[in-house]
Design brief:
- The chain is α+β, with helices and mostly antiparallel strands.
- It has one domain (12-172): Peptide deformylase (Peptide Deformylase).
- Helix content is 29%, strand content 25%.
- It has three helices and seven strands.
- 30% of the residues are buried.
- The mean pLDDT is 97.
- The structure holds ligand K2U and zinc ion.
- Ligand K2U binds next to β1, β4 and α2.
């Protein structure tokens, strides 16, 4: 297993609409494993393929509580089949926008259809933090970041901060 470099906003690869996955290759399995390792190391509870530079429609997730056994998930070609009218607001972060947290409102519950690494189709309903997470990750597959829900002023301030951070990281080497 190996840690993958997480792409930092702004980056054109984070704005692309990703391609559907057509069959689960050994390379995709290996990448999903590496993405889970990268997510746990960050730490985070989700990570989408475009965040590590792969513009394909899948993400990994583990929303199990810290004191519980890990529950790693890989969701391939996910799509929302139902969303509640009720909404929830969560303070969201993003591994591609480190150190920034903003309250984002989304449907409180969603039903998502997807396939797993064995090619089996699923349809599951998510609520709470998991519902927020799957919607956040699905946004990544459509080239959308949580800053896109903010005012232009806030978005531009955050983007400027990330550009500065990337320059500092480039200088550090
Ligand atoms: O896609 C990502 O950048 C991973 C996010 C997913 C996420 C964002 C907001 C709300 C839930 C999930 C990271 O896991 S951000 C770190 C984090 C960890 C625990 C709870 C919320 C955010
Ligand atoms: Zn994110």
């Amino acid at each position: 297993m190996s840690l993958k470099k997480i792409i930092i906003h702004p980056d054109p690869r984070l704005k692309k609409i990703c391609d559907r996955v057509d069959g689960v290759s050994p390379e995709l399995r290996k990448l999903a494993t590496d993405m889970l390792e990268t997510m746990y190391d960050a730490p985070g509870i989700g990570l989408a393929a475009p965040q590590v530079g792969v513009l394909e429609r899948f993400f990994v997730m583990d929303v199990a509580a810290k004191e519980s056994a890990p529950e790693p998930r890989v969701l391939i070609n996910p799509r929302v089949t139902w969303a509640s009218e009720d909404e929830n607001a969560y303070e969201e972060g993003c591994l591609s926008i480190p150190g920034i947290y903003e309250e984002i409102t989304r449907p409180a519950s969603v039903r998502m259809a997807f396939s797993d690494l064995d090619g089996k189709e699923h349809e599951e309903e998510f609520e709470g933090l998991t519902a927020t997470c799957v919607q956040h990750e699905l946004d990544h597959l459509d080239g959308k970041l949580f800053v896109d829900y903010l005012s232009g002023i806030k978005r531009r301030m955050i983007t400027a901060k990330m550009k500065k951070l990337k320059k500092e990281r480039a200088r550090e080497g």
